[in-house]
C-alpha cells in the first residue's frame, strides 16, 4: 500500500479474517456468554500476567475510552489529559457524553507526554473539595502518544505514583498499545499494572483487526458497573464472538506484537530516511507515526508519486503525518524516502 | 442447529462472510468515506425507492434505535412506545442516555402493537405545552413486533397519520424488518415511508450479518446532526467497510428477504405443528417468533431432546419463546414438533 | 382567600417574612457557610431526633427530589414510584436530568399509595443484574401523597422493610410533609428514619415559606457527593441565608406544624361539608387536599361565587381538586360548602 | 461592612425587602403567571428598549448561565469562553450538565477579555463540520469580566460581529452587569443587543437582591424551549413572585444602577488609594472588583484591622481580591486605604 495517511485505512489481517470465518458457523450464546469471549479474557490474563483482570470487548477505541472513564468519573468530575489527547480532541465529546458531563482538562506536554509535575500542578490548581469546581477524578495517558512517542516504564510509573498519591485512577488509551509494547520490548505487565495503570483501552483495530478493542480492568473492583454502561451505550454486541474472534486471533502467537514490530520498523526506517534527506521531524519517532515538516514542493512530489500523507496543521502549515501499519510494504517506504529525497518521482 | 432461543445465537451467513473477506485487503478511506458505505446507501435508495434517503451503518440495534431517537427527541421530550418495546425494556436505558434523559412512555397494546387510539390518548393525557410535563417528541413502533406479530401497511399508515396530526416523527425499530417485509410481501417502501415512517432502524444482525444495522432517514432533514451524535457515542467505525460490506452482501440479490422468508416459513410450520399438538400460542405467529404455553413436562422433554427455548415469564410461568432464524434447519423444526407432540424424545 | 386551586398560590407567612427582613442586613459567609444555615441543620436534628443527619437547603421541591435521587441513582438505574408521583408526572423529567438518564418506573396504587407488594413485584419483574435492564436503585414515596392521603407509620415501615430487603434506599417526597405529620400526630422521626426512610425532601414552600426546602439525609453517608451535584445544578445559593432564614422561622415554635394543622382542619371541614352535601370524594381526605366529583352545574356555581378550584381530568371530567393552605380562611371554607350545597351563591 | 471578600456577602437592599414583604400577602397564580413576573418583563423591555425581548426570572447566576447556554448549545457543541470565565471555572460543570455534555473551550485573554481574534482562531482550530470534533455553538463573555474590567461597546460589537460571521449566538454573563453599565454610562441596549448580544444573564443577586437573575433573550426565537429546560432543572419557582418582586424593586427608579454606581465609586476610590500607597494592581479597576498584590505584612495588617479580603492565588501568592458592593461604607474604604498605607491599624 502507498497510503501512509493512517493505520486505520487498512483492512483486517488474514489470520483475523480466518478466525472470523471459522467463528461464523454454528450457534453461540449471545451477548458475550460465548467461548471466544471467555478465551480472550483468559488470554489477556496470560499476556498481562494478571489472573484476576477483567476484560470486555468493544468495537471502537472511542467506546473503550469513554466507557472506561465513565466507570470511574462522576458527572462533576474532571479527567486530566494531554491537550492533544484523542479523548479530548477527536471523539466529539464522547467522554463528556458517557460520564454525563464531566470536564476534560487539557494539559501541555512535550512530545505528547504528561509528566507527574504537570499533573500535580493541575490538581493543585483544581480546587479539590471546593464545591464550585469540578473534581479531579482520573488521569488518562495515551500509549503510544498522539505524537508518536512512547512513555518509558519509568515515566508511566512516575505518573502512576502521582495518581496514587492523589487518589486518582490512571487510564491508558492504548489505541496503539501494541506499537508501544513492541517499541519498549518489555512484558505488557511492566508498562501497565505493574507500573500502576488501572485501566487500559487495549486497541486492536489499527493493528490488524476490523473493529476490536478490549477494555481491561487490572483492578476488577473498578469494573463494578461497566457492563450496564456498555449495554446502555449500545456497545454490547449480541454476536459478541465477532469481536472476540478477532481478538483471539490477534492475541494468538503474539500476532499483535509481530504486526506492531513490522509497523514500527517501517516507521523507523522512514524516519531515518527522511532525516538523511534533511527532513525536520517534529517529534522523536518511537512507534509507527512520523510527524515531519515537508516543504510544499516536496509534498507535491509525494502526492504525485501516489502517496497519501496527511497535513497536520497543528504543527505548522508544512507539517504532515505519516503512519506505518501492520501491512505497510517496506518497498513503499523506500520509495517514499526516495521521492522525498528527490531521487525518485 | 437446535437452538431456538433467539435469532442472535446465529453466526453470519456465508455470503456475508465472503464479502467481509473480500473487503479485508487493500486500503480504504476510513470513517465511512469508503466505497462499500456509498454503495450501501445507493442500494438502500433502490430497495426503498427513495433516491434522497440517508443511511448510516452502525453495529447494534440498540445504537441504531437510540441514535435515531436522539436525533429528534430533546432531553425534555418523551417517546411513546409499546410497553414491551425493546427500546424501553431491553436496552438498559440507551434512549435515555442518548437523548440526555428523555422519558419513554410505555403504552399497552394487544399482540405487541400500538394503535392510533392508544397513541392519541397518550398524547391527550401528556400535557402538551405544559412545562411541568415532558413533551411528546416521537413515536416508535417495532416491526416485526416484540410479540412476533407484524403491522399491516394500513396499521402503520394509521399510526403515521396520527403522528403527523400531532407533529411527531415516527420511528420504526426494524430489528426484524426483513421478517416483517417477507411476511407482508410488499415492497419495503409501502410499509415505511409511503405509509408515513420517518426513520427506520434497518436491522441485519439477527438475519444473517455479524453486527450490522443501518439507520435510515427517509426525510434527510431529520438526519441533521446524526453524524455528530454517532461519533460522540463511539459508533463511528474507522474501518466502516467492515459493517458496510456485511450490509452490501445482505442486500445483494435480496439475500435479506430470502433469509427472512426461510425463518418465517420455519416459524409458520412450527406454529402449525404446535397448534396441531394442542399447544396454546400466546400471539399470532406472523414472522419468525413463536410464544407458546408449554406444560412443565413438555418443557422438560424439549430440553432433554437438546432444544433450547427460552422461558418467557411475562406471559406466564409456562410460557416460552422460540425463534427461527435464517439458518434454522426445517428438520429440527419437525423434530421439535414431534417432541412437543410426544411423538419423539 | 377564596383560591382553593393550590397551596402554592399563597405568599409567605408573616413570621417567615419577618425573619427574612431581619436577615437582610449585615454580611454573612456565602454559599451556606452562614449561621442561619448551621442553625437550620441543628434545628432539624432536634426536630427529627437525629444528631447526625445532614440537611441541605434548596429552593424548589423539584430540585430537592431530583438532587436527592441523583445522589443514589446511577444513570442506568431506575426509581420505583407511584404512577401519579410528582417526580414522574410534574417535573418535566428533572429526575432523569439529574441522574443522567435513569428511568422512573410508575406503579399503580390505590389512593396514591405504594405497597410493599407492588414494589416487590416491580423488583421481581425488573431483571436485577440483567445487563439489558435498568437496575432498581431507589424507591420514592410521597407523604402526604398526590391523592391527599397519608401513609401511616406502619405503611411506611413496611415499604422501608421491603426496600431494605432489596438493598434500595427509600426517599420520601415531603412537599406536604408538614400536613402528613400533623395528620398522623406523631413525632417526625417516627414516620421517617425510625420507619426506615433514608432521605427526605422536607418541603416548606407550600406551607408558609417563599421558596424553601431541605434535603435531609438521615444516613449521612448517602450525602457523599450531594454538594457537588447541588452546585452543578445551579442550586447552591450565594446568599443562602435567604433560604435558611425562611426555614429557621418555619421550624421555630413548630410554625410548620401549626400551619399544617390549620390547613388540614380546613380540608377536613371542607370534606365533611361536601360529603354532607352528597358530593362524591375521589380519595379519603387525610391532609390538605380534596379530590371531588362536582357536577358541571355545581362547578359553574362555585366559579361564579368567586372560588378557584382546579379541574382534575385524571379522575374524570367532573373531577376537581381543592387545596387548603396555612392561610385559608375557615369562613371561605364554610361559604364554599354552602355554595356547593346550593345554600349560597 | 468591612467585608471586602465578595459582593455576595451582602444581604438584600431595603427596597428589595420592602417589595418582597408587600408581595407576601394574597394569592397569586403560581409558576410565573403572576403580575410581578409580567411587570418585570415589561420593565426589562423598557430598560433595554426592546419590546419583544423575553425575560425569565431564575434565582442563581449559575442557573441563568447554564440554562441560557443549554438553549442554544447541543450536547456535541462547544462554548468558547475566557479561561477564567465563571461558567468554566466556578460552576462545577453546570453548563456541561445542562447542555448534556458540551465542552467549554477556555481561551486566553488579557484582563479577563476575549477578542475577535482569539475567538476566530479558536473557531478556525475547532474543526467545524469535522465529526470528530465538538462543534462551536456559542460564545460567552462576562460583563463586567472576572478580572474586574469592562468591555467597551466597541469591544462587544467586534466580538458579536465575529460571532455573527461564524453563525454563533453570543451570550453575556452579566453577574455584574449593573456595574458594567454604570461604568460605561451607556444605555443598556447599547452594550447588549444593539452591539449584537443575543442572550444576557441579567444579574441582580450580587447588586442588592437576595437571589434574582433574569435570563434575557433579545431574540425571542432563541428562547424556544427555555421553559421546559428551566422546569426540568428545578428552576421554575411555584411562588415566582418572590423572585420577580425582587427584580421589580431592583429595576424600579434604576435602583440597580444607583447600587452599581456606589459600588464602582467605592472601588475606584479604593484603587486610587491603593495606587497612591504604591500597591500594584493586577488589572485595571473598571467596575467593583480590585485585584492587587499585597505583601504578607500588609495582608496581616489588613486582617488584624478587621477587613476581609480574599487570597487570589491565580495571580500570585501575594495577590488578593477586594470587592465593593452596593452597601459598602465609603468610610470603610478610606480606613482600608489607611491601613494598607500604614497610616492606621
Automatic annotation (TrEMBL), chains A, B, C, D:
Pfam families with a match to the protein in the record: Beta_elim_lyase
Enzyme class: lyase
Span of domain Aromatic amino acid beta-eliminating lyase/threonine aldolase: 4-293
Molecular-function GO term, any one: L-allo-threonine aldolase activity
Key word Ion transport present: no
Highest taxon in the source lineage: Bacteria
Xref: InterPro entries: ArAA_b-elim_lyase/Thr_aldolase, Low_specificity_L-TA_bact, PyrdxlP-dep_Trfase, PyrdxlP-dep_Trfase_major, PyrdxlP-dep_Trfase_small
Cofactor(s) needed for function: pyridoxal 5'-phosphate
Keyword Lyase recorded: yes
SUPFAM superfamilies: PLP-dependent transferases
Stored CDD domains: TA_like
GO BP terms, alphabetized: L-threonine catabolic process
Record key words, sorted: Lyase, Pyridoxal phosphate
Catalytic activity: L-allo-threonine = acetaldehyde + glycine; L-threonine = acetaldehyde + glycine
Protein family according to the UniProt entry: Belongs to the threonine aldolase family.
Record's subunit section: Homotetramer.
Record function comment: Catalyzes the cleavage of L-allo-threonine and L-threonine to glycine and acetaldehyde.
PANTHER family, per the entry: L-THREONINE ALDOLASE-RELATED (PTHR48097), LOW SPECIFICITY L-THREONINE ALDOLASE (PTHR48097:SF5)
Official protein name in the record: L-threonine aldolase
Organism: Caenispirillum bisanense
Lineage: Bacteria, Pseudomonadati, Pseudomonadota, Alphaproteobacteria, Rhodospirillales
